[in-house]
Design a protein that fits this description.
This protein has 5 helices and 9 strands, in the order βαββαβββαβαββα. It has helices at about 25-35, 70-80, 120-125, 145-160, 185-205; strands spanning about 15-20, 40-45, 65-70, 85-90, 95, 105-110, 125-130, 165, 170.
Length: about 220
C-alpha cells in the first residue's frame, strides 16, 4: 500500500492482540486506545482469569473481546479473516510507520513492558514496524503510548471517519451503548462489576474492608 492511503473498496479493519501484557493498568489503557482509534476487535491471548480492565474507564464495553489460549489459535483465526499480524518492535527488519507499510486489514501486537516481544509473538508476525524517535535519553516508549501512535497512523491511512466531538464537554461524544450487541465476555464483565460494586457498598456501610481487590471500572 502506498502513501495515498487505502485503496478503493471496503475499508481495512484494525485488530489488536493483547498478549504478554505485564501490568493490568496497561491492558486497560490499551483497550481505551483501541476503542478511540476504531479497532474492530481485541484478541486476548493466554489470559485465563477475568480481564483486569482498570484504566479503560468503561471503554471495554465498546469493543468486542475474543479470548484465545495460544498465539497459534489467534493467528489461525486472523488468517481466516484475511488479517495480517504486524508486530510493533524495534527489530532490524522493522519498517518506519512513516513509510505507511500497511498490508490491508491488520492486527497489531506490542511486546512486554520490560522484555519486549517473545520469540513466539514474533513468530506469528507477518511484518514489523517501529516508531521513529528524535531525542536522546530513552530507548523505547511505554507500550500504550507506542500502540496508540501506531493505531492512529493506521486509522488515518485506512480512512476511518473521525468520530463526533462534544463541544460543550470539550471531548469526543459517546453514543449510548446498545446492550443487545454486547458479547458474552462483555456481559459477564458487566455483571461481575455490578456484583463487585454492591459488595463494596455493603463493606463501606459496615465499615469493613472488601474481601476482594477493587480493580474494576464503574458500570
Amino acid at each position: 500500500m502506498g502513501d495515498a492511503g487505502a485503496s478503493a473498496g471496503a475499508s481495512p479493519r484494525m485488530y489488536f492482540i493483547a498478549a504478554n501484557v505485564g501490568k493490568s493498568a496497561n491492558l486497560g489503557t490499551l483497550i481505551r486506545s483501541c476503542v478511540a482509534f476504531g479497532c474492530t476487535e481485541l484478541c486476548a491471548v493466554g489470559m485465563k482469569k477475568q480481564l483486569q480492565t482498570f484504566g479503560a474507564h468503561g471503554s471495554n464495553k465498546y469493543i468486542k473481546i475474543k479470548r484465545f489460549d495460544t498465539l497459534e489459535q489467534c493467528k489461525a483465526y486472523l488468517v481466516e479473516l484475511s488479517v495480517c499480524v504486524c508486530g510493533v518492535e524495534i527489530v532490524p527488519e522493522a519498517q518506519s510507520i512513516m513509510s505507511k507499510p500497511w498490508q490491508g486489514s491488520t492486527a497489531f501486537m506490542v511486546g512486554n513492558e520490560g522484555s519486549g516481544m517473545t520469540a513466539k509473538q514474533k513468530s506469528i508476525c507477518d511484518h514489523f514496524v517501529y516508531i521513529p524517535q528524535y531525542g536522546n535519553g530513552t530507548a523505547s516508549l511505554n507500550v500504550t503510548v507506542a500502540a496508540s501512535i501506531v493505531l492512529q497512523h493506521f486509522a488515518t491511512w485506512a480512512g476511518f471517519t473521525e468520530y463526533a466531538r462534544n463541544p460543550a464537554a470539550e471531548k469526543f461524544a459517546i453514543t449510548p451503548l446498545d446492550h443487545s450487541t454486547l458479547s458474552e465476555e462483555q456481559l459477564l464483565l458487566r455483571e461481575q462489576r455490578h456484583q463487585a460494586a454492591q459488595q463494596l457498598q455493603a463493606a463501606e456501610a459496615e465499615g469493613t474492608p472488601p474481601a476482594f481487590d477493587v480493580d474494576f471500572d464503574p458500570v
